[in-house]
């Protein structure tokens, strides 16, 4: 049914085309006009309903115009040969039809919004048409002697109505950049009406009011195209015109405007011998066109200048907050650094803490409102001499020339204004109060600083504040720059180490309590730096995370660990129940193909998925994306076990454990170290064991170094443990020599 509705416009074109051919051949001409005109009026009346077109007022006006046109044709045919003014009764309906047609097209243009340039260009074309009509058609028609007044008036009125049609057609063409089929069909209808009327205006110069039937063909085709426009599915977009970004005098535009501009000058030559009235019309028309051209040119220059200013503003300001962007900030800071002043230049670089949680929980609309509100708060909280800029998604920079006490006071103002609750509104209109914090780096410029180096140092201090616990500020010192340089050097060396497989894997046993029998092992990556020697994971894992090396590094560790477990199983070093625990990063879990590749690795090595435990951080559950959650589900479906590492140090909650497919938790060493001495740590471990037991999760305590700690863990019911009490992480060969498959006696080395 929908397909049939969308094809009705084709039926209208076929009906109109066939009727036009029959009319041209002289076959029932009166019937042809009645059929085509009736079909057009019906299409205008009911077609917009088929495609739920709104608003319908323009189509109602066109329907009224069509009825008047059709009535005029019928009445004119019935009264042909009657004396004036009775014979001109049909023309009365035709004039009313023109009024309805003009009103309908104006309704479309009003809906679109009339562009000033389009209106000026349309007026230029219209004035050219008026001058041509007055001199070529109206004056000759008015000069014919012996005709009734009503005939003379109509002969002069039709060409003037056609000039209005020209204006409307020009504005249709100049107003929208996207010309859908319905738009083109309406434009074709208007053009055909103009062509038909010009034909009658030409014969009217000699006093004729009736021409050959072939002169009515444009009107039949106009009815055809007009009806098809109402039935075409794109009729809906006629009320949603796409404005032209710049109303420029393009080559196609000049093809329409050029002839209108040339009309007064051409007719001045052709009609140089004519009357004073003709010369007056030519002079007034030419002057009006020149005046419009001057206004149009002046307008174009002004709009170009305004567009240039908008472009420059957009290039140097943040579109969301209106604050200066990074590019503009650099220019302003360079200017400030070169200007003499009594005080130092201070820069505050802040990053919002908790913005991602707001964005993910409430949506991007709420996140945008939060950014706008923070920018406004900073602007109002600081002195007018301070510059506030937005340089990233949730990053702002403040620059101020002031004393050190004033800088510290500004820092407090910044933190206080951000920490106050903010009211956000979601895209659905839901209102909520949220609280965010900020990590801020502060730096004072010296005489050698440039804008780029100042921002780099402030950014470094901000990250140091974030690492120290967030929601605080840190003042930059030179040692931070050295730390950044060292970090970059480690990153470069680590890239080479990953590419050349210079890293190694050590294995630390995980034992059953109380006996101490090895049940599994954790694979830990080690790196012997060419200059610094052996580096622990805490020295380079964070670098790998920040530089996106962690995916390649993690994939290598997983692959080598699984292969090593396969060799141990094949050699009888470990039994079939022995499992291997490997850490995976959030970036790895952000790879949709991670589970599939891991399955292939396990298949090739011949290791069952249940023999592998993947350790994730609590942040994966708290901040993880939908993709990471799907990957975890895929891993569990594969049979791999999933444990939460360092449990208890972050946002540990029963709800997170229930929502994610984890199979175990690893109690962080910070709680284990106090066992036997701290009642609080003992209660925390007791709570973790109780919660895990209720959820049927396995529990491993890490960092066990003393027998006293072991004994407390046994009394609390912890089934598995890991730590130096049973051995440090050692290479695979050493691990084999320690006879992992047998009970390993406790030792304190």
Automatic annotation (TrEMBL):
Signal peptide: none
Annotated Gene3D superfamilies: 3.30.70.270, EAL domain
Domain EAL: 487-743
Residue ranges of every copy of the GGDEF domain listed in the record: 343-478
Xref: SUPFAM superfamilies: EAL domain-like, Nucleotide cyclase
Isomerase among keywords: no
Family matches, as InterPro entries: Biofilm_reg_signaling, EAL_dom, EAL_sf, GGDEF_dom, Nucleotide_cyclase, Rev_trsase/Diguanyl_cyclase
Regions that span the bilayer: 20-47, 59-80, 92-110, 122-143, 149-170, 182-203, 215-233, 254-271, 277-295
Keywords annotated in UniProt: Membrane, Transmembrane, Transmembrane helix
Entry keyword Transport: no
Pfam hit, one: EAL
Matches recorded under CDD domains: EAL, GGDEF
Protein's UniProt name: Diguanylate cyclase/phosphodiesterase
